[in-house]
Design goal:
4 helices
Length: about 220
Amino acid sequence: MQDLASSNQAAATISGSDIASIVGAVATLVSILFAYLKWYLPWRHKAKEKGRRKRETAAQETVMQGMARLNDAYSAMYGIVSATKASRVILFAGHNSGGIPNAGNPFYLSAVHWFFVADHRAKFVGYKNLAVDGHLVKALIDLRTDLLQSYVVAQMEACQLKDYLRLEGVEHCVLCYVGVFDRQFLFLSIANYDASQPFTQEDLTTFRLQSHNVAEAIRQARESQ
């Protein structure tokens, strides 16, 4: 019995020592954890803030690049009215509201960008989701090959395009192919309101050059997205 009591006392003594060791180890781990968190949390916050600023900077750069391409397109359009007899330039998109143009689906024209000389800004009539007839569809198909079409409105056959141009007061009109982007057929409509001022060959050359510049601005914009 005395030997058994001695053994129990030794076991109790060992158990108390183990508990003290465990408590000490836990205290050390807690201290290490607090020290780690004291370093990690500010670092993590800084890392997240740095990532956020980097994303914001990238987003801002994307916006500014897009605005630069937009400015390039407007500069080309301004180059048309500033160097020729044109009174206005409109970039049109032929579209099927996001779908691919096809038989059985509606096809519309909408103005995307425009530039008018100061005296004629009031003539702009909006041009949004205009219904397109067969004559204009055929004209746009031919424009893809011709690249440029010139019209004297008074001499045009009766059609929807003539109606739109007469409503605006246009006397001379030139269509210039720009390209097909995102399922949209893009072209420039260049016009003036003076019957006595037909476009010259030099004007037409300027139209071709600046149409190319508009197309390049749009192409770069799409590639950067």
